[in-house]
Description:
Blueprint: H1 3-13, E1 17-19, E2 28-34, H2 40-51, E3 58-62, H3 71-76, E4 79-82, H4 90-100, E5 104-108, H5 123-131, E6 135-141, E7 146-149, H6 159-170
Parallel strand pairs: 1-7, 2-5, 2-6, 3-4, 3-5
Antiparallel strand pairs: 6-7
Amino acid sequence: xxxxxxxxxxxxxxxxxxxxxxxxxxxxxxxxxxxxxxxxxxxxxxxxxxxxxxxxxxxxxxxxxxxxxxxxxxxxxxxxxxxxxxxxxxxxxxxxxxxxxxxxxxxxxxxxxxxxxxxxxxxxxxxxxxxxxxxxxxxxxxxxxxxxxxxxxxxxxxxxxxxxxxxxxxxxxxxxxxxxxx
Length: 182
């Protein structure tokens, strides 16, 4: 519905490019988007979701976003609130969502915050392993004005090697505020 508007604004006016393709033939996957350094990432993500024609991809966001007065908007846009203040077995809850749906995808930021972090959170990786789904790595490169999509990444039995490969993908991708990136 908003695809022509996003194409006009993000591609024609702002000069962003889409690099790579989403695997439309895969019905279940998790999208790990990084670096997450700005509130603008949300708008870039919405534009990318529309331009790649993957409106069915939902997102996880901190529960504070889903309160009055904007809660209805984030839910309408496909958000699921996450309570980060306590250990609530989120990985298993999300895995159960995948099991209940024929086609399901969720996007999240592995850093879990816009602030500088020393390492990424691994929940997305554990969700992918337990649900037996691939991870689609997506980078928002503000320096090159690109939304970069990597081919599906299937977690192996070697989590340490997998995390090195995942971090290597994000290396060199510059967030809105590069000093806050991975």
